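Memo to structure team: turn this sequence into structure tokens by end of day. - J.P.
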Amino acid sequence: MNHSETSTNSSAPEPQMGQTKSAGSSSHSMEKTQLLQAYFFMMVGLPYSGKSENALKIRSEYQAVIHSSDAIREELLGDVQDQTDNTRVFEVLHERVKRDLLDGKNVIYDATNINYKRRKAFLSELKKIPCIKSCVFMATPYNVCCSRSKHRAREVPWEVFDRMYRNIWIP
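Reply from structure team:
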């Protein structure tokens, strides 16, 4: 991600989340201010497409919190591959994302997010939370994802991977 276009000529340090930044002053000496908003990044892509690796880069650049469906699955069910209670996993994931955005934190939502209707439904839940929303789509070729899967301790079954590939709704 290259965000050099957003750089400023000001030598003053950028305000932290929740602080205000001067946007100039009027002839009546009234200073206009703007509240900085949190950033929300929704990772989208097939397994092994590089979502989590890219999320780490975004975390570093934006001082963001990463909320991962895999990490929550491990925490709640004891096994990252356990798909028996995805409803609960995603309820917890969504609550944590919303809580942190409300607290003014930059947040990365790290999951495949390949289903358009589910993405849209969650984004609707965020409508009342002031944040700048970004989708980070990992357009990694299918054969690269397949190759990467063979070198990982946790392997998504081929039938599941293929079904995800055929059903992905590209943002």
